[in-house]
Amino acid sequence: MVARQLQVVLRAAAIPNWLRDLLAPLLRGLGQSQLAHLLQATRARSGHDYFGLLAGRAALRQRWFDGLHTAGIDVVLCPPHALPAMRHGATEWTTAAACYAFVANLLGAPAGVVPVTTVRADEAEPRLAGRDRVLREAAATESGSAGLPVGVQVIGRLFREDQALAAMQVLETALGDRPDWPLRWGPRMAAEPAATFGGHARGGPGR
Fold first, then answer.
1. CA end-to-end span of the chain, whole Å?
2. Residue of 86, 153, 79 lying closest to 114 (CA atoms)
3. Across the strands, what pairs with 30?
4. Which of 86, 95, 123, 94 lies closest to 206, judged by CA?
5. Predicted pLDDT of residue 76
6. Region 52-61: what's the mean pLDDT?
7. What is the H or E stretch that residue 196 is in?
């Protein structure tokens, strides 16, 4: 049995390009700009296009790692995810929120996530999302997320897992004494034996 979230992806993948070209402007007109963008970005490619993408990926990796070496940068810090810990089933419409994690996978770079803080109450307040389905799901994920862990992603140089792990250890050591460090709220989670906390998945500090 295929999960409902994957069923949406599989159905979208089966849409022919000519129909995508018709649906994308319609979706934008209906206020669904995020879905329109995803529809066009995931269109079917020819074999020639595929190998062109592979060549582009190789060139991007070369520029990225050359840039780190030239600048003397050992690791890059960035968010691991655009949203707090996802509610069960919410990933049906919010796949793009994982774009930060896609970077390390695209580059083939060593990476990890370290807990740094928790969502503040003022960050969990509802925001205006308009009619866009993706933004509404994102807003629903943020709502009520106060207290959930926030992580930072550490991306290292090629084949330098040692540097990435060392940077993660430095962050944990430096931030571990903060009152809002996520691992300090363990007793609060232990009080709820269920697999969720505040309606959100216990996905760890990386969200």
1. 26
2. 153
3. none
4. 86
5. 96
6. 96
7. strand 196-197
How many angstroms separate the CA atoms of 12 and 74, rounded? 39
Question: Which tokens is 148 given?
Answer: 């959930």
pTM recorded for the entire structure:
0.77
Torsional class of 44: left (φ above 0), alpha (ψ -120 to 50), beta (otherwise): beta
Percent of the chain with pLDDT over 90: 40
Phi-psi region of 39 (alpha: psi -120 to 50; beta: other; left: phi over 0): alpha
CB 205 within 8 A of CB 151: yes
Closest CA to 20 of 8, 46, 38: 38
Residue 66 has pLDDT above 70, yes or no: yes
Residue 122 is encoded by which pair of tokens? Answer: 């003022």
Q: What is the SS3 assignment for 103-118?
A: HHHHHCCCEEEEEEEE
Which residues have CB under 8 Å from 45's CB, separation 6+?
53
Tokens of 172: 């944990």
To the nearest 10°, the Cα dihedral for 68, 73, 75, 80? -70
Please give the sequence-ordered ranges of beta strands (E in DSSP) within 18-165, or none if there are none. 75-78, 111-118, 149-156
